[in-house]
Amino acid sequence: MSRKRNLHISRAVIPSFFTILNMFSGFMSILSSANKDYLSAAWLIVLAAIFDSLDGMMARLTKSSSEFGVELDSLSDLVSFGVAPSFMVYQLGLRSLGPLGTLSSAMIMVFGGLRLARFNVQLVGFDKSFFKGLPIPSSAITISSFVLLFYDSSLGMLNQNAAPFLPVLAVALSLLMVSTVRYDTIPKLSKKGLRAHPLKFLVFLVGLVIAIVTLGKALFWLFLLYIVGGLIRWVIEHIRAIVTPHKREEEEDVELSSFDI
Predict the structure, then answer these.
(1) Residues sharing a CB contact under 8 Å with residue 200, sequence separation 6 or more, in sequence order
(2) In the prediction, which pLDDT does 9 show?
């Protein structure tokens, strides 16, 4: 029994190591924002997201998924994808808006924490085919990619045309995190995952190639497409939900009238 227990502990260390790297990347991003190195801060959040995906992958490979891992992952995510992007957008321009800017930037952290808490409470098993609400890493990468795309390092500020959209983006992403809009998960990199979701896997692969080829410049547009796609599906689902009851009532009326005859 002791050998098996020691083996389990050694396996659990592997995904936890990547989770800690995720948290450390978030901390380094905060330091970079404090030093007004916003490009590095944005890239460090992207790096944290890579470590975040790797810890889940390693947990599945080593079969060491646990409640401890889930809690540690949530704490790391709050640092890297909640505190780090909140502080970055505050430093980058929202602090000039006074209390309104402070509130807007803090929403990313606060609503991200609520999103993580809701996820942990509703978690059943460790594999999900979709998320309820925009995942907090997706929100953070959207903000980071916005900075990478529109930040002018020579001027030390965002592009003047893009700057007004920063508070709007911060508030919109915050609200989406605590919404009921469904978003697809990243497909599992396995034969089973490929067979189950071939189209999703292909879309993810194409998006990854585009992001690499453009050196991250296309990341913002790819995540914007992901976000808008989820919203469009949510609207279609609600329209169907409204239309379907009327159809059922009509079918019930037909059945009743035929029965009376």
Answers:
(1) 184, 187
(2) 53
The 10 Å Cβ neighbour count of residue 232 is 11
Query: What does each C-alpha distance from 29 to 47, 115, 140 come to in angstroms?
Result: 10, 21, 12
How many Å apart are CA 207 and CA 210, to the nearest integer?
5
Residue 201 one-letter amino acid: F
What is the structure's pLDDT at 156? 81
- What pLDDT score does 36 carry? 94
On the question of pLDDT at 4 being above 80, the answer is: no
Inform me whether the pLDDT recorded for 128 exceeds 80.
no
The helix (H) or strand (E) run that includes residue 183 is strand 182-184
Say how far apart CA 73 and CA 24 lie, in whole Å: 12
Q: Using the structure block, give the residue that is written with the tokens 């497409």.
A: 225
The CATH class of the 2-186+218-260 domain is: mainly alpha
Q: For the chain, where are the alpha helices, taking DSSP H only?
A: 2-34, 38-61, 67-77, 84-92, 99-122, 136-150, 165-177, 191-196, 198-213, 219-260
Contact 19, 72 (CB under 8 A): yes
What pLDDT digit, counting tens, does each position of 40-63 carry? 999 999 999 999 988 878 877 777
Q: Which tokens go with 241?
A: 């939900």
User: What is the distance, to the nearest Å, from the Cα of residue 121 to the centroid of all Cα atoms in its chain?
Assistant: 17
At residue 157, the 3 state secondary structure works out as strand
Contact assessment for residue 183 and residue 131, using Cβ atoms and an 8 Å cutoff? yes
User: Three-state SS for 151?
Assistant: strand
Q: Are 222 and 211 in contact (CB under 8 A)?
A: yes
Tens digits of residue pLDDT in 68-106: 878 889 999 999 999 999 999 999 989 999 999 999 999
